[in-house]
Amino acid sequence: MLDENDREISLTFAKGLAVLLAFDARDRSITISEIAEKVKLNRAVARRLVRTLEQLGYVSCDRGRYELTPHVLRLSQGFIEGRGIPQIIQPILRNAAQEVGEAVSFAMLDETDAVYVAHAFIPARFTLNRVTIGTRVPLPPTAAGRAILAFLDAGRRGDILAGAEFAAHTDRTETDRARFEAALQEVRSRGFALTDSEYVSGVGSLAVPVFDPALNAVIGAVSIIFEHGRYSETELADIAARLKVCATHVASTF
């Protein structure tokens, strides 16, 4: 949350970032008026920000509608390369995917969401088009999210859950706070999270947490998705054990 009373921050810069974030899968091509309305800015201010981004090469214009350009990928380049995701983490996930026979993903905690930062795809295996690099998912109804939530400190977990409408994401009984906390306790006990049709109907997911060894704090989770009923409990336990090894290897890169 931005502290507008902090004299060391630039509100103009923050507004420019908000304009960039106005572009998403639903609003790929939008007008200045639509941007202004979406980010709650005066139209004249929005226009100056958009024109600045256009001159810097981050957006392009076609008949009054603006789109992001590939230039915006430079903003993530430092994170991707600095973490060694293509060179180090991707091969770790690929090895795990070959072992378990399913695509393996690595998602990291970002405020109140989990965002996928690496993915090892297995051809001809079950997958979802929605799982790509940069995909964001809510924490409560997903296995990756629960693997993270379960190991956050109680204060931060409470803050996230206080603002989460996890009942809106699932029609299962695990939507009231007490039962959800009990589910997270179970995740802590067995060391992995398991969901079934709670975020996407007919799709199960298994995830184990990834910890930053220096901070001894959870930073993300490695996970798989699979068709409902595909695995027995014994098979899932074996997959969880293999993913725990993968998570340890990913953690060693931080």
TrEMBL record:
A GO BP annotation: negative regulation of DNA-templated transcription
Cross-referenced Pfam families: HTH_IclR, IclR_C
Keyword Transcription regulation recorded: yes
This protein's UniProt keywords: DNA-binding, Transcription, Transcription regulation
Keyword Transcription regulation part of the UniProt annotation: yes
UniProt domain IclR-ED: residue ranges: 71-254
Residues spanning the signal sequence: none
Residues annotated as domain HTH iclR-type: 10-70
UniProt xrefs under Gene3D superfamilies: 3.30.450.40, Winged helix-like DNA-binding domain superfamily/Winged helix DNA-binding domain
Taxonomic superkingdom: Bacteria
Cited InterPro entries: GAF-like_dom_sf, HTH_MetabolicPath_Reg, Tscrpt_reg_IclR_C, Tscrpt_reg_IclR_N, WH-like_DNA-bd_sf, WH_DNA-bd_sf
Molecular function as annotated in GO: DNA binding; DNA-binding transcription factor activity
Protein name, as recorded: Helix-turn-helix domain-containing protein
